[in-house]
Amino acid sequence: MGxxxxxxxxxxxxxxxxxIAGTPxxxxxxxxxxxxxTRDQLxxxxxxxxxxxxxxxxxxxxxxxxxxxxxMDGSAE
Length: 77
Prior knowledge:
The protein is α+β, with helices and mostly antiparallel strands. The protein contains 3 helices and 2 strands, in the order H-E-E-H-H. It has helices at residues 11-17, 39-50, 55-75, and strands at residues 25-30, 33-38.
């Protein structure tokens, strides 16, 4: 890392990953270290991680629990 916080990616790695000047990248801190991903790689990772997840059902269940909690809190008064 340079003194201005710039990272230098070796040419061989840039070529292998298809990185060119101006390619948007994202850095993610994980328990194992920092991961550098292109925007497309990040999209694929998120899609893979969400495969099979039923987010709508989870959201509805959360809302129902919150509504039930509010009803319980309101009835105690």
